[in-house]
């Protein structure tokens, strides 16, 4: 299998397809490499394709009325994003910006729709992805409404540990490049508040954080906040 076929087979949207169907799908994939800080698409631009992340990290965000950024979701390798434009032919509902150098594949709407029409398993997988996205959004709203900022930040860090964490003798290494401002934008607070909470976590020996990674020494300490 080619590199793209490996990724397609391991993406939930396509893993019900057999090898011949995957090869046909592979012919429709367009690849792009993006450097950190690049914008893949902007909120409000015409939605032309569905994307999947092969490597790197991407944030999906919206601008508030007063111009602040609110991060909706972090896209990890293997994730599909911008899937909603397949069905409504509308604009992209958020901006996709590269946080870590990224390798991205995308499939134009007309090609993706042809695949969904031909293979019912893919249509079911697409509905499952959209249902999961809706559930994640509902959980985030509940998190913002019911938890204080320390709990919200603990939930984000524990989620990153589950998605990207690498275990070693000292704890969990989370190789993500998130600034304090981006963490603040994820949990709906200010950079100053996040900095204060992180300093508290550091003093308690729970974690260390810099621009390159998070080192989580005492995962149970964060769980105690929940």
UniProtKB/TrEMBL annotation:
GO CC list: cytosol
Species the sequence originates in: Desulfofarcimen acetoxidans (strain ATCC 49208 / DSM 771 / KCTC 5769 / VKM B-1644 / 5575)
Record-given protein name: Transcriptional regulator, Crp/Fnr family
UniProt-listed InterPro entries: cNMP-bd_dom, cNMP-bd_dom_sf, Env_Response_Regulators, HTH_CRP, RmlC-like_jellyroll, Tscrpt_reg_HTH_Crp-type_CS, WH-like_DNA-bd_sf, WH_DNA-bd_sf
Domain Cyclic nucleotide-binding: 13-99
Domain HTH crp-type: residue ranges: 147-220
Keyword Isomerase found: no
Keyword annotations of the record: DNA-binding, Transcription, Transcription regulation
UniProt keyword Cell membrane present: no
Molecular function via GO: DNA binding; DNA-binding transcription factor activity
